[in-house]
Design a protein that fits this description.
By secondary structure, the chain is of the alpha+beta class. Helices cover about 30% and strands about 20% of the residues. Helix 2 crosses helix 8 and helix 10 crosses helix 11.
Length: about 475
């Protein structure tokens, strides 16, 4: 019997786990995939929104602004990349000026700091590649860009260091109410807990509906993206938005924290909650819409496209709190944009709810910091040479596009909740995320995974489960 079980190891679940690990409690995270950050948290815009878009008084508004405020300190404590680059919402004709002003007023009401409405001339001086017909823009300097993998993995590793257990490849199929708490029936046996946090992303409605007669419904909203080469990374220096519409903030153009350029997303509601395929229509749509806001986007430098799913609850707001007819069952549902930005505050809120319910006491030995994987490129030449002398693996470049060394890959595998697949290594080190999209480095990475994990090369997967890389070969011959 655990004190708390958290279902889902995305940013919401791991943020809750990290905050709850400050307290004396027996906590476990159940995740149906083979690693953390395998759902909505891995495929998104990677934006830390300022907080002007959400409806005043909503949970989205409150938690977005609070999460934005927390992100800088959290990045320093847990050693993941984050930069406050700022954002611009463009107004492309005078008729839309009232909408831009309304967005500014909403941001003021939400508590967003330092916003300004700029003239077209000021915008073009700041960002020469935005559309020439821009007449004004809402500038929010507190907006930022983050590595969503780095954020998610950092919170999970820190929670693990503070005693939280993680159980992967474990899907909750049924939930039974007990006299005290709940029994979670999974493909890996039954887990029991006094309290349950439902942070299951697009599947949060299915779990909620197992314990409550007050049904909720979540729609998977697919967004297509294009990622451009680092040569295009300086095309804009800030996140560029169009004025938001009914289905969200529209197609954006933004630099990424690692120096690429990202364009997207579209917004298409789909029934299949695993439908992360891109479509030709979606990619054509995002290209056309992006070029209305930013001129001369070098789309020939696209190195990959991908799609992510947002968990849109019918009510349109985050759902966080104890389910009225299911005591001890805490929903963390409908976490769509601005979920990444809000995640530190979501974790804080869930921890506050459970502290009040359970009377939790703070630990005296909580570990507040975490050191990320050593990146030799961030060291001085003397420091790098000393590191290579100590461990020659840091002198062996495995991924030439991103200049990732064998030492970094080994660290990614050996650290708490270490990588066990090509995608796991990619999320932690960026090996395979560059121009060739793992065309060169994947065999070497597979060799390192097999060696470090003591597995046959035949059993190395792209992303767990049955996604083996080598097929149609004699396993014994390896």
């Amino acid at each position: 019997m655990y004190d708390i079980i958290i279902i889902g190891a995305g940013v919401s679940g791991t943020a809750a786990a990290r905050e709850l690990s400050r307290y004396e409690a027996d906590i476990c995270v159940l995740e149906k995939e083979e690693d953390v950050c395998c759902g909505s948290s891995k495929a998104n815009s990677a934006i830390v929104h300022a907080g002007y878009d959400a409806v005043p008084g909503s949970l989205k508004a409150r938690l977005n602004v609070r999460g934005n405020e927390l992100m800088g300190d959290l990045a320093r404590e847990l050693d993941f990349p984050f930069e406050r680059r700022g954002s611009l919402v463009l107004c492309l004709n005078e008729e839309e000026m009232p909408e831009l002003q309304a967005l500014y007023d909403r941001g003021v009401e939400n508590g967003v700091k330092d916003m300004r409405i700029l003239t077209g001339e000021e915008v073009l001086a700041m960002e020469p590649n935005v559309a020439d017909n821009v007449c004004a823009a809402l500038y929010a300097p507190t907006a930022g860009i983050v590595c969503p993998f780095g954020l998610n993995i950092a919170m999970a590793e820190n929670a693990c260091a503070n005693g939280v257990a993680f159980q992967f490849n474990t899907q909750v199929d049924k939930i039974t109410k007990l006299e005290e708490g709940y029994a979670l029936h999974t493909n890996n046996g039954t887990f029991r807990a006094r309290f349950v946090v439902n942070a299951a992303g697009v599947y949060a409605d299915a779990l909620h509906n197992m314990v409550s007669d007050d049904r909720i419904h979540i729609t998977a909203r697919r967004g297509d993206y294009c990622l451009l080469d680092k040569e295009a990374g300086g095309h804009v220096g800030r996140t560029i938005f169009a004025l938001p519409g009914k289905r969200g903030k529209g197609v954006l153009v933004t630099p990424t924290i690692h120096g690429n350029l990202l364009v997207g997303p579209t917004a298409v509601d789909v029934e299949d909650k695993e439908a992360v395929n891109t479509t030709a229509e979606g990619l054509a749509e995002l290209t056309a819409k992006a070029q209305m806001s930013v001129k001369n986007i070098p789309m020939k430098q696209v190195i990959t496209s991908f799609a992510g799913l947002r968990a849109h609850e019918d009510g349109g707001d985050f759902m966080i709190g104890e389910v009225p007819d299911a005591p001890g069952f805490i929903d963390c549902a409908g976490i769509e944009s601005p979920g990444i930005a809000s995640s530190p505050a979501i974790g804080e809120m869930i921890a506050q709810i459970l502290c009040e319910k359970m009377g939790l006491k703070k630990k005296k030995d909580f570990i507040a910091t975490r050191q990320g994987i050593t990146d030799p490129s961030r060291l001085s030449m003397d420091e790098r040479n000393a590191l290579i002398m100590e461990n020659p693996a840091y002198g062996n470049i495995v991924c030439r596009c991103e200049m990732v060394t064998e030492g970094e890959i080994v660290d990614a595998i050996r650290r708490p909740l270490g990588a066990r697949s090509l995608d796991g290594v990619k999320r932690r080190t960026r090996a395979g995320m560059g121009r060739c999209q793992s065309g060169f480095c994947s065999p070497a990475v597979m060799d390192i995974i097999a060696r470090e994990c003591g597995m046959d090369l035949y059993d190395v997967t792209k992303s767990g489960g049955g996604s083996r890389i080598l097929t149609g070969v004699n396993k014994d011959a390896l």
